[in-house]
Amino acid sequence: MAAPGSGVSGTVVAKGTSTGKLKVKTPKGRTDVTFRTITVEPGGSTGWHTHSGQVIAVVQSGTLTRILDDCSVEVMAAGTSFIEPAGAHRPHIGRNLGTESVVLWGTYLLPEGSALSDDADAVDCGAKK
What pLDDT is stored for residue 87 in this prediction? Predict the structure, then answer.
């Protein structure tokens, strides 16, 4: 028999549903877990970047257009979630092509002491065609 809780409250700040199965992998060794909000204004972008571990993201508002290392494009509307891949070989960029701010909630699962992201060279999608 469980005892009911008391003196506890919680607030859901963002919720999103994935378009498919999410495959979460934590780094080997100790893991830094960081929660972060990111706002991308209309016309803005994250710049090409990579992560040393996975990032689980929820689009709270707006629509984020992502271009991945294989030049595929994913359009993520408010209420969706996705995982950004780990590794220097997986550069990607997020763009706000809409008229309202994109607000993301991210959970970073990174090797201890890692930067949240690392700048990366842009992928030449014209050369991949």
Answer: 95
